[in-house]
Amino acid sequence: MTIGIIGAGNIGSAFARALARNGIAATISNSRGPDTLQNLIEELSPHITAGTIEETAKADLVLVAVPWSKLAEALAGLPDWAGRIVIDANNPIEGPLFKPAELNGRLSTEVFAGLVPGARVVKAFNHLQAHLVSADPRAEGGSRVLFYSGDDASSKAEVGALISKLGFAGIDLGPISIGGKLAQFPGGPLPVLNLVKFG
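^ thats the sequence. predicted structure below, dont judge the formating
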């Protein structure tokens, strides 16, 4: 399974570091082009390479972590996702003011799904702070919990397997209508909680 990452900010880079620590290859991209990612690639070589957004979007599984106001622009013009898995690691809020985006009563993942037509969307990697995504998930003597949700059982199973491979204790929160609401920041009760599963 090939892995792409769109967005090289805190969460995208943390996900890349978690993959590299476990010897898993991926391609990462940002809006400014591969040349601007040289320092990150040097740090995470040989597992992580830089590409364009168009290149990373061709992977079997793509994690998207882009500032909310720039999401539509980042995903514009990409071909239909044709049933591939897209992980929504975004939150509808942005610094420096951290003012929540206006969602008109919809969940952020529902809005996101409209930007990736044909994708099987799984919500994951958005509720933990970036340094906890990239850190050793077994540091506290158990396995750090990572929540995920989605409406397609097979794509959730694949994301759950990747979460386990990275050393986290994955917990399936069910469909987006339930899990997306619980893990959304702001508003949901689960973001920023650093939970550890023992045994």
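The first strand starts at residue 3 and ends at 6.
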